[in-house]
Amino acid sequence: MYWENWTSGIGPRATVARVRRWLRTHPIAVSILATAIATGGALLVARVTGADAIGRAFGEVKPGWIGLIAGAEALTYPAYAMAYRSVAGVHGHAPMSLPLVGRVVAAGFGPFHVAGGFGIDKQALHALDEDERSARVRVLGLGMLEWALLAPAACVASIVLLAEGADILPSLLWPWALAVPVGFGFAFWASAPGRRERLARVRGRRRAWLADLLDGVGVLRTLLAHPLKHWTAWVGTALYWASDIAAFYGALRTFGLSPGVGQVILAYATGYAATRRSLPLGGAGVTEVLMSYALYWVREPLAPALAAVVAYRAFNFVLAAMPALVARRHVQPLLDAADAMRRASGKR
Question: Which of 18, 193, 266, 287 has a Cα-to-Cα distance from 151 of 20 to 30 A?
Answer without folding.
Answer: 193
